[in-house]
Write a structure and sequence with these properties.
Length: about 120
């Protein structure tokens, strides 16, 4: 099944985004994650924003978190504040815990680090 593309408007700009479930390896363990991708008004030809989100760990937490549009808005805003340039043509800007975790404030989620 294909993930649905959605749109949102932030400060007069239009962004297209999608989120899909997948698995990531963290400290040798497989975790369920949400892969969020977003594009600016140039669509898929613009610079893409990517973020892998994990549910915030805690005791007795069942990992069933899925971001709401408000949480995706926070991911996009974090990307913009961190240097993502959606009007740029091509390329990918990756939000990772290592580089952007201190700026990331989405309750219930944390960024993961992509393999280098």
């Amino acid at each position: 099944m294909r993930a649905r593309l959605r749109q949102m408007h932030i400060d007069g700009r239009t962004f297209t985004w999608r989120a899909a479930l997948h698995r990531v390896q963290v400290d040798g363990f497989s975790h369920r994650a949400v892969y969020v991708r977003a594009w600016g008004s140039g669509g898929k030809n613009s610079q893409k924003l990517e973020a892998d989100l994990l549910s915030t760990p805690g005791p007795y937490v069942v990992d069933n978190g899925y971001p709401t549009p408000a949480e995706v808005r926070a991911v996009i805003i974090c990307g913009l504040k961190s240097g993502w340039q959606p009007e740029q043509r091509g390329g990918t800007f990756v939000l990772s815990d290592r580089k952007h975790g201190s700026k990331f404030a989405v309750p219930g989620f944390q960024l993961t680090n992509t393999p280098t």
